[in-house]
Amino acid sequence: MEFFLQLLVTGVMLGSIYALVALGWVLIYKCSGVLNLAMGELTMIGGYVCLSLYIRFSTMMSIESAFLLSVVGTLFVGLCLGLITERLFLRKMIGEPILAVIMVTVGLSFFFKGMVFIIWDTDTQVFLPRVFPIEPYEVWGMAVGQVYFWSFIAAMVLMTVFVSFFKYTRWGLSMQACADDEMAALSLGVSAKFVYALAWGIAFMAAGVGGSLLGNINGLNYSVSLLGLLVLPVVVFGGLNSIPGAIVGGLVIGILQNLSGGYLDQFFPGGIKEIFPFIFMVFFLLFKPFGLWGWERIERV
Amino acid sequence: MSSYLPCGTYHESYRDEQKWWRTPFIKGKMGLMVILALSLPLLVRLDWVGGEWLSVAYTMNYYILAALGVQLLIGYCGQITLGHAAFVAVGAYCSTYMVLFIPWPAFMVDYGLAYPLSIVCAGILAGLWSVLFGLPSARVKGFYLIMTTMAAQWITVPLVITQYVSQIGGRGVALSIPPGTIKVGPWVIDPSNDEGIYLFSLVLVALCLLAMGNIARSKLGRAWVAIRDNDIAAETMGVNIVSYKLLAFFVAGFFAGIAGAFYISALSFVSPEHYEWFYSLLWVGIILIGGVGSIQGLVFGSAFVVLVFKLLEMGVLGLSSGLMDSYPELGWVTTKIIFFKESAFGLAIIFFLIYEPNGLAYRYWQLKNYFNLWPFSYTGKGA
After folding, report:
1. Would you say residue B36 lies in a domain?
2. Chains A, B: CB contacts under 8 A, how many?
């Protein structure tokens, strides 16, 4: 039982990072209808940007403020990259068929991956000096790594910020309007281009923070982008256009991943932990083809 | 998308109109292509050409075979797949294990029948594996279907093949095939015999493209195109969409299996790293660059991608060896060439989709019509 609870708590904390990245994905999909397969690479870019900023800053100030500052820097770089990407590539694809748009994001993912490895090399890099000490915290009698704990806090804070931005600010409301009915939003004076740009900026920011947190857990290398790819089972589970779905889906996938790693690994040695969300997703889709809270599309000929 | 015939060419029966090669000019063109393809092994013996172009040519043929199934699923049946490398991997492993571990009777080995038989079996097994992951297509479509095909990739290659299948025989993850094992008839096909690989790939490509072309203009192909254009309308017209979709997955998997089983002869080993997700995406990129829903487009796309990779490699290597003397600090470029390739390929896909969304096949179609209708050519958009 204690083992189970342990896995559960760690799963929730890992899942909160997935939920954060999935939130960015769902925002893009809701606002502009783009199915983004480059999310893993965005996560990786965020991690590497944060790392190089951290290495610069950590020589100048204390570790905590250096890390905070580099996360803020990552947010800024992510925003700029998101706006540029949207302007250069995605805006031209508005209204094109679904496969074309998906493949543009795939092309982006190749481009970003190649660029990341050209700039930062393929070796695993770690945050040195360590941002979070190894000694675990005690939470209700269970040992929880400090990395996981603070990642959970950070993901929760950022998620609250993003959701309240979406719900209560003027820009967020225009994004909601655009997601709901683009034509109506346009006729009421909402600029769709601005909304798309904003959505990509936010997605890059969310993925960037997710990447810097994931990079703190196991170090940064290509596998971070595979973890970022896990956002796809998350959003499919929750339903493509549901923000609560993304958050719940992130937590559930995080828990499932940890439980499968803990219990199934003895029967299926090897990479079951990374693959299990995909297996789960296939079976889930057979029973609920639109995820938990996704909109069912009713088609006419 | 059939092109216009030149002025003054008429058909007197439907049979004539349905022919593959309809005019003497087309016959001559195709004949020339066959001669050119067959003479490539002689051509590369010339000093200024170089033998490595033969391997470029059979890599292109491999890409054609592998992307054929993707073209079928995406271009003809409208089922987007992003996990085709999984089925290629199934074919490759099936063929390897059949050749290596089945105690073949002596005459099968002597006459080189084991490998051709294993290619057919690999195709069937890969087809069945593909049907397994095509089953959700009965219920889901669009992005949700893309996710299940992606799951096929992630379940098959990193888990099933790397962790379990490649442990059979206890030789580790990369399984090498002893030289001389892979025989087709009396000919040994392995990396010491580039010409053999090339000619064998040519035969396979010709057979598969012929099969695909004929399927596409049969009842089966018309049903697939109906499903692609609007599946609900197709269902109301009496097309059983579930069975036709599954059949599309089976045939696509069959072609993928053949591709995988062929390529082990060129590699002479199998290892999961040749079937990563990158390749699934590469093959979708090939058909997008070439043109969706066209067999010519498949060939153009494969040729384009292979040539771009090759030229990029030559360019970067030439550049770095030329510059190395004067700028030794640029040496890192050669070590990272694979990432330059990847970035360039990504940008190529993006720019093709933005500026040439109909693919290379559309440009070729325009060019053909320009000459067929000359001097009253109209090369605008539309039929």
Report:
1. no
2. 139
Average model confidence (pLDDT) across chain B: 86
- Secondary-structure percent of chain B, ordered helix, strand, coil, rounded to 5: 70, 0, 25
The rounded distance, in Å, linking the Cα atoms of A53 and A193 is: 31
**Residue-wise pLDDT tens digits, B20-31:** 888 888 899 889
Q: What is the DSSP letter of A271?
A: T
Structural domain that includes position B274? 50-295
Kindly tell me if the per-residue pLDDT of A99 is higher than 60. yes
Is residue B196 situated within a structural domain? yes
Q: Is the pLDDT of residue B383 over 50?
A: no
What confidence score (pLDDT) does residue B5 get?
77
In this structure, what CATH number is given to the domain that contains residue B157? 1.10.3470
CA B197 to chain centre: 16
DSSP strand E in B216-333: where? 269-270
Residue A239, phi then psi, degrees to nearest 5: 100, 135
CA distance B342 to A110: 6
Rounded to 10°, the helix B84-101/B143-154 angle is 30
Q: Does residue B381 fall inside a structural domain?
A: no
Distance in angstroms (rounded) separating the CA atoms of residues A196 and A207: 16
Q: What is the mean pLDDT of residues B256-271?
A: 91
Asked if B136's CB is within 8 angstroms of A285's CB, the reply is: yes
**A138: enclosing H helix or E strand:** strand A137-139
The pLDDT of residue A103 is 87
For chain B, what is the domain count? 1
Burial class (CB in 10 A: 0-12, 13-18, 19+), A184: exposed
φ, ψ at A34 (rounded to 5°): -90, 130
Q: How sure is the predictor about B337, in pLDDT bands with cuts at 50, 70 and 90?
A: confident
Give me the DSSP letters along B191-207. TT-HHHHHHHHHHHHHH
Q: Which residue segments constitute the domains of chain A, with CATH numbers given?
A: 2-287 (1.10.3470)
In a domain, B6, yes or no: no
Terminal alpha carbon distance of chain A: 53
Query: For B213-242, how does the pLDDT look when each residue is reduced to its tens digit (9 = 90+)?
Result: 999 989 999 999 999 998 889 999 999 999
Tell me whether residues A100 and B342 touch, CB distance under 8 A.
no
- Mutation for testing the B interface, residue in A87, A91, A110, A236 having most B CBs under 10 Å: A110
Of the candidates B18, B2, B6, the residue with the CA atom closest to the CA atom of residue B361: B2
Q: Calculate the alpha carbon distances from B295 to A12, A287, B223 in Å.
A: 49, 36, 18
DSSP 3-state assignment of A191? coil
Question: B interface mutation test: which of A118, A229, A298 has the most B CBs within 10 A?
Answer: A118
Structure tokens of B28? 């001559």
pLDDT digits (tens, 9 = 90+) for A224-259: 888 778 888 888 888 888 888 888 999 999 999 888
Q: Do B347 and A111 touch (CB under 8 A)?
A: yes
Question: Please, are residues A204 and A82 in contact by the beta-carbon 8 Å criterion?
Answer: yes
Return the DSSP state at A220. Answer: B
Alpha-carbon distances of B141 from A255, B136, B144, B146, B200, rounded to whole Å: 27, 8, 6, 8, 37
Task: Indicate the helix (H) or strand (E) that contains A128.
Answer: none
CB-nearest partner of B353 from A100, A112, A233 = A100
Highest mean pLDDT, choosing among A184-188, B20-24, B370-374? A184-188
**A295 at B interface, C-beta within 8 A:** no
